[in-house]
Amino acid sequence: MSRNISIKEALGMATKTLVSNKLRSSLTMLGIIIGNASVITLVGLGRGAQTLAKNQLSNLGANVLFIVPGNNDTRRRGISFPKNLVLEDAIAISNQVPTVKKVAPQISANEIVQSNSKSLNISIAGVTPEFLEVRSFEVDKGRFLSKSDVNSARSYVVIGPDLKDEFFKDKSSSLGKKIRIKDHTYEIIGILKPKGAVFGSNQDKNAYIPLTTMVNRITGKDPTYGVSLSFISVEAINKNATSAAKFQITNLLRQRHKIIRDDDFAVRSQEDALNIVTNITSGLTFLLAGIGAVSLVVGGIGIMNIMLVSVSERTEEIGLRKAIGAKQSDILIQFLIEALILSTIGGLIGTTTGLSGVFLLSLITPLPASVGITTTFSTMIISGSIGLIFGVLPAKRASKLDPIVALRSL
Questions:
Q1: Res. 332: pLDDT tops 50
Q2: Host H or E run for residue 362
Q3: Which domain holds residue 311?
Q4: Final residue of a domain: which of 199, 230, 261?
């Protein structure tokens, strides 16, 4: 008399079958292992890139606005920025916008810097004393540039810690030392504390000189526009005033530049940049997760293929079991359990491998790679579901075998 076998019995038989074919079972699980490991690692990589970008943007300051020459159209088309953002604009913003606390005009250029026999091509910035507070930089040794340094166009320079290490690694103090920028010598009066990189640019390897010195000796003054700026950094009186400051600055510059249609400048906040970066990195994370998911699907197809082969090889076993009373549901459950075991164990191994990969990424790269618990469990559930779904076809084929036909092959 036939009876339904219990889940426990089906689990025992499925486990015994898989253990007796260790190599085949291991190779079958390999696709799921690679798929899970890929999803976890790639998602961790994407989230690490997103976190890194957010951390770098937070260094800019929550209340800071950046005013740059050119509009979105010129940026998309790669047109060189116009020189219509001038020092007088920065002065007007400082004097006429009530929601602004400090204004820091800046001119940037790449120049060859020399010390003794070593030379480097680095970013030189002409700035004013307000730069230090607006951009949240701190002085480690010495002092920053003062108003008198700017007014007198002195040959002073403040350098980042990485630049100091490049030129004066073996010396206890670099204050008072001289470096050459272009054709002139500058005295180092200050060393900044580490600030880190922003969008791949190492701020700790930059040099800062008075804005007037930058104009007189490096960039010059445009006969049409005057002192052209690379950009203007503006600190609002508080975080809540950032939107109002952006609106007021835009109106003021439109009036000053006599703009009727499209702006010839752009005002960007940290929040704007953060939204752009978040959208890009989120898209990147989904893309990477999709690539990893393809590996999971391939792993599921591998399980289906191997189990179809297994059904062909185990025709006699299935025939004997049906001959002694096993039902179609019994055969179906056993093969589904085998597929589920393969995908679950493969998912666990793959997840562990992926988490190890994320940990290694965070150790050996600047990316703070991480994966949330939700992502980890979701990946494991998906891998188990894939094994179950792709195991249905072989299980149905096995359960529908005619015992008489199966026994003829004995």
A1: yes
A2: helix 328-364
A3: 7-55+276-408
A4: 230
